[in-house]
Amino acid sequence: MSAFNGTLVYKTGESFAVKVKNSTYLINASEVFFFNWGFVAVGNESEVRMVPFVKFNVDVYGRTNVSTGNLTAEVPVVVLRACSYDGKPLWNLTFPSYAWTYDGGRYGIKENGTPFRRF
């Protein structure tokens, strides 16, 4: 349990409970950072959106070709939400992802994915 300006914060399993005066609410997020003015919650979401696409190809002679474009795909999106302790939203920041692929040519290495890891 922690206290911030009369607000109590409890860890409840995988989330946090915030008690302000006679109200209690849960914060369901991957990570939460608490400050004197409020908190920032990190959320990992998944969205279908148009994202940049980066393709790396290595030919049999070791030459590399990089090309870019756009792709519609379901990708992870990291969202930061800041709220005051009474639950009022202060700001919201979204970090969209991009998609990539790698073709290692004669070595047969082929991989693809997105850059964000899940917390």
Offer a few descriptive terms.
mainly beta; six-stranded mixed sheet; four-stranded antiparallel sheet; elongated
Would you mind describing this structure in some detail?
The protein is an all-beta fold and 119 residues long. The chain is built from no helices and 10 strands. The model has no long low-confidence stretch (mean pLDDT 81).
Radius of gyration: 21 Å
Structural class: mainly beta
Uncertain spans, ≥5 residues at pLDDT below 50?
Answer: none
| Percent of residues in beta strands | over 45%
Arithmetic mean of pLDDT: 81
Along the chain, the helix and strand elements come as: EEEEEEEEEE
Helix content bin: under 10%
Topology:
Elements: E1 2-4, E2 7-12, E3 15-20, E4 23-27, E5 31-34, E6 38-58, E7 64-84, E8 89-95, E9 99-103, E10 110-113
Parallel strand pairs: 6-9
Antiparallel strand pairs: 1-2, 2-3, 3-4, 5-6, 6-7, 7-8, 9-10
Task: Report a brief summary of the structure.
By secondary structure, the chain is mostly beta strands. It contains no helices and 10 strands.
